[in-house]
Design goal:
single chain, 165 residues, alpha+beta, Gamma-B Crystallin, domain 1, 4-stranded antiparallel sheet, 3-stranded mixed sheet, globular
Length: 165
Amino acid sequence: MRRTGMAIAALFSAVSAVGFSGGPAAAGVTTEYVSDNCEFMNCAYGDLILNYHSVATSGQGNPSGSFAQFYGNIYDLAGTYVNYNGASAVHYIYIFLKGQGDGGGQKVKNNAASANNCSTVDGYRVYYNSGYAGHSQSIPHYWSCASSTNLDSTLKNENASLHFA
């Protein structure tokens, strides 16, 4: 329990140093660009996929272009700081998957137009603001990620966090 508490304190220290200075202030903070938060955390099946484009055909099917996928709650789609050993941290910045069409390599925050809920049991909500605040939209789950849901006019290209609903 003591190690967990120290690791959490170190993480908050690293995040605070970065947050107040506007950029990485402490040595040992590296940056990585990822299109899937399961690359650095232990995930189960049930991703929410955010798509760069809207659905082309009246709400059915999947759009062309790039995508990023997330499992669980994402407080800020700009990225996440993770402290692995108390001495260094990694700033993971969320981007749309490179090499997958339009939008590849662009930051996810405020750039998604539609979503696929690939969970078979959980709903998701996409929020206008970071921290699960502001206007939100429920993204229903479909079996096998069969259909995308267009984000409403408030959230299209203005989306900052997501949460299990």
